[in-house]
Amino acid sequence: MNQLNENELLVYVGSYAPSTSVGINVFRLNTDNGSLTLQQSLEGIENPSFLTLNHNQTRLYAVSEIGAADGTVTSYTVNPQDGRLDFLNEQSSLGKATCYVTLDDDSSCLVLANYTSGNIALYPVKNDGSLGEAADHVQHKGSSIRADRQEAAHPHAAVIDPSGRYVFVPDLGLDQIKIYQMDYEHTRLLPHNEVLTKPGAGPRHLVFHTSIPYAYIINELDCTITVYSYAIEDGALHPVQTVPALPNDFTEFNICADIHISPSGNYLYGSNRGHNSIVVYEINKIDGTLTYVEHTSTLGLTPRNFAITPDGGFLLAANQDSNSIVTFAIDQQSGRLRETGQTVTVAKPVCVKIAKRPN
């Protein structure tokens, strides 16, 4: 394939799929109009439900979300010319329903979360980008008030803070955010602190603001977003505000999913599965609080995941149950989403990652 044009970005999409079907698709995103063009379709990995790229965009890592057995985490090389992927190696995830994966800024360690088995694991990353065997894993224990969803621990993400010192793990089953200190010398996760959320909230994903000391959690079960002040010196979170992810008059079934902040730091976006929308809030850059802007339909069903381009120009929503990725333009002045008319068909898309252009 040809080298990327100046107006193109690479987009990687993970899907729920058997290993004999396409699990990861690579697209070119035209940043003039938001259209997506298929670059590569990759088989050989079952349910690659979450992806992450290393800092310089030369390696991609995908977890395999398997409910009945331990999953895997797989590394791929990224072709610097056209973004195509080639298998590098894989390791056991040491748990069931692996649902999240992330790297530290130096791409020396990888952390993943196993939803069903209730544990997290830490891996060393070798010089060539391949993964060593797990160096540490931690089992969560307990439950919370929702017998149908919180009968046991269910960590749903593992997010490394801006300092690189701590890992924050929202556990939907415990209504807690577990905080671990990263011990890089010994490749260990050291228990550091925990934050209790509202009972029944079901914390799912977390994002740190890039310029002010605040973090934002989207709560899957009670469909809210909670603002926390963040004390970077000791890795502590303190609740500031909780706002609804749904319109007040919506009473049908809904569970929340993903959360992101615009590159400008001015706007926060969260996805609703059921209402099938993206909620938009404006961020106060003094006290971190949120002010409602709008809800926008994702033009599909079950937006499990979405991504924003590095320049903040577009938002790509992955509609799992209508098999589509829909491109929206972002108004830079208001944060509002505008339909572009650009949609691409992908079977059960559940993760979208957009690569930054090389400097």
TrEMBL record:
Cross-referenced SUPFAM superfamilies: C-terminal (heme d1) domain of cytochrome cd1-nitrite reductase (SSF51004)
GO MF terms, alphabetically ordered: 6-phosphogluconolactonase activity
Short name of any one Pfam family annotated for the protein: Lactonase
Domain of life: Bacteria
InterPro entries named in the record: Cycloisomerase_2 (IPR050282), Haem_d1_sf (IPR011048), Lactonase_7-beta_prop (IPR019405), WD40/YVTN_repeat-like_dom_sf (IPR015943)
UniProt protein name: Beta-propeller fold lactonase family protein
Homology family: Belongs to the cycloisomerase 2 family.
One GO term describing the cellular component: cytosol
